[in-house]
Amino acid sequence: MTHYLFIIVGAVLVNNVVLVKILGLCPFMGVSRKLETAFGMGAATTFVLTVATGASYVIDHYLLMPFGLEYLRTLSFIVTIAAIVQMTEMVIQKTSPLLHQVLGIYLPLITTNCAVLGVPLLNIANQHDFVESLLFGAGSAVGFSLVLVLFAGIRERVEGADVPVYFRGTAIAMVTAGLMSLAFMGFAGLDRYQ
Amino acid sequence: MILTIAIMALGALVLGAALGYASIKFKVEGDPLVDKIEAILPQTQCGQCGYPGCKPYATAISAGEADINLCPPGGMDGVRKLADLLGREVKPLEAEETPKQVAIIDEQTCIGCTLCIQACPVDAIVGAAKQMHTIVEPLCTGCELCVKPCPVECITMEPITENLDNWKWKYPVIEIKRAA
Amino acid sequence: MLQRLFHFKGGVKPQTHKAPSVQQPIGQAPLPARLYVPLHQSIGGVPNPLVEVGEHVAKGQLIGGADGWLSAAVHASTSGTVLAIEEHLAAHPSGLPTLTVVIEPDGRDEWLARTPVDYRALPPERVRELLRDAGVVGLGGAVFPSHAKLTAAAAVPVDELVINGAECEPYMSCDDMLMRERGEEIVRGIAIFRDLLAARRVLIGIEDNKPEAVAAMQQAVQRLGDDYRVVAVPTRYPAGGAKQLIRVLTGKEVPASKRSTDLGVQCFNVATAYTAWRALACGEPVISRIVTLAGNLEQPRNWEVRLGTPLRDLLALGKPKADSSRYLMGGPMMGFEIPSLDAPVVKATNCVIAASPTMFPPNPPEMPCIRCGACADVCPHELQPFELYWFARARNFGKTQEYHIFDCIECGCCSYVCPSHIPLVQYFRFAKSEIWSREREKNAADAAKARFELRNAREERELAEKAERLARAAAARAAEKKVASVAEVTTAAAAEATPATAATTTTEPAAAAPTVDRAALATAPEPPLVAPAADAQALKKATIVAAMERARAQREAVQPKNTEQFSAEQKRQLAAVEVRRAALQAEQAVSPATATPERSAD
Q1: Architecture of domain B101-159
Q2: C59-73, C223-237, C256-270, C540-554: which range is least confident on average?
Q3: In a mutagenesis test of the B interface, which of A59, A91, A94 is the best target, namely the one with the most B β-carbons within 10 Å?
Q4: What is the CATH number of domain C120-283?
Q5: ipTM exceeds 0.95, yes or no
Q6: Dihedrals phi, psi of A91, to nearest 5 degrees
Q7: B33 vs A contacts (CB less than 8 Å)
Q8: pTM (two decimals)
């Protein structure tokens, strides 16, 4: 059991996809202007990422490996992810049109979110089994959502701050992201004492 | 080779079927976003954006046809709110921002032609044929639509002056002289 | 008589500076040369002017009638002549004008006939009306019409009536002096409030730095044999805030979403009780109030001042020292700088402070917020001023509302303690008025939208009706043609028919013709409409063109008036109108009582 726990903690904090592995930066910067949208984006990405890791595991192990078609991995993963994203987009448009409008271009961009493709590929590289894959996927997604929401909260406050003119906008956001990354480095070693 | 094609085709078939089902199941009727956009617009119905009223403009924004910076009565504040709602970039206003105005009819000159009454989008002008017209000021949105039709040019736009009812506390300013 | 006291959170203890102004008894301010009585002196509707320029008014005469339920009347403070009803500088931080009745006193100071009433003999509704028409409002500074506070919540009986004599603002001593000198009348006034609200207990809260007032009130209560409790509450600003005093005396904390009556508590100022008593028992409406003159003066003192007295005249009584640079209305914590001394004393004017740079040094420059939290410690409403400040400064008004900016009473404790000298209250006032103005704009936009949609619906309906009319007219024309052709056919048939069949064929058209006739009759009034409608439109166009021509000619003329160049026909019409108007005016002259001021303005 602790093994699973370490996978989750490792994915959420220690090897955070955004701040440590530097994957999935475009929604991290793009959709973090407001807390609500950050929540929405986090939820959507969590869903997509978790489903995508499960689906890609199944495809890889029961479709590609038995027939020796590993070279189709990237292609089939991307197609699967694209379909899941498309479906998520439809659901969001139906249930929350405002969130759909606010997420805008970033919603279909989940397709090419490197975190979403990266996590299934990491799963295979780390030879995770199905449960581990799912946990790793969900953990990474939670980690992504966590830093996205934290970052959005910080940016909302920074908007009221006396930022020097030349630092306003994306510049101060990048500086903030750097400091957050620095903070997350502090989690390194948390999973060493197994 | 054939196996590869077969597997990819199978995958495509399954995914396509799922998406097709979803597109029917989650079909969106209408556009609820239009109402949210319209709530931000100032409802002057002035048409300065190039659309015949605030609702058509809201529809155009929602459809991505119109930019968000075409509404002078809404001012930069309105642009900012729209940008906030839609997650777009704040852009400077296309036209010049004017202070809030109200139309005034010079009753000496009015000939009672009713043309301004027909032009007013919010029914803020009272009067009848060959009778003097006047503007119900609290209802006037300052859209200027009545100015052009007037054949005798008796309608002028006047900025709304500050009074005790609309007076606002000012943003506290730091006196640089004292701070230095 | 032991009263358990509670505490409110926060608060500060500024220096009180009250001693100089209580050395002398309340003085009667002399009659000024001009009185400027603003019509809008209370929360709620703006009273309508009831006098005319040139009219002679008696002291206490109604000059502004209450507009609606939430409003209070305004009266002439002395006898004299109405010089003007005009816009005059208001006693307001903006320095903007407000509609004011200017009275030139005749020096006789004659009262209108005063009619004392026994309020116990009257139904409560009538008493409330009387209070409204006497202009009784909360004199603590909020000027909320008192009669509107004298209705108990339907479900909750009033347990405690709290009488506010705390007077926590520094420098201010008008309530203190009033309690010392006119305690008995205050106690009688409290009885009115108690009876109207059917309150079980009455608690009079007075800060313990006013022992003379406490003693005077206790004596007055004993003399009149009432069971009110006079409670000395700890001196701590803002103990005089309604919610704070209620908390201290009863332990009840009024939530933001509720009014104190929902918890069975109501609160009035001592001066309000005094004026209520004067209004009912003496028939004297609110025409004066006690004002503290304090600060950088030779003679700080409390004065009973007629409402409408210019502040310049009032300040002259206190002899401001030469280095007085600015003047505050209200206390130093919550008051505002008077934009001009031409502004008059109003019902909200409880204190006027002369300030010199040494006495009130100008605020040091604002430094950045260091988030020390001192403001949150002293906030009596348990808000987080530093958060409010952060968002108000960034103009993020939605967030300020999330942090409950509208629970802020602007007491000024946070600004008082701020080590960075940030004028926090100013930021909050700014944010509040911005939010209100946005609300107003939103409402106006919604109304405009509704009107626009109604208009569109109406236009569509009219178009549809017109189309229908046209269609019916066309149908009628078609029917006419048909009738004509049918008639032709039947006559031809009748001519050809043999006598044997003639009987059957002739009955048919005879039966058919009447039905067609009826149909034609039913639509008959419609078809002629089309041609005249077109005619009327052409006529209208022609008249508009003619009018435009006339107007252009007029503009080119030196005097642009459209009352010249009338045709003979128009002149005849005008003459007829004049004759009618003359007849009407004669009628009005006979019965001038029916002519309201508005009509005469026409």
Answers
A1: 2-Layer Sandwich (3.30)
A2: C540-554
A3: A94
A4: 3.40.50.11540
A5: no
A6: -65, -45
A7: 97-98, 101
A8: 0.78
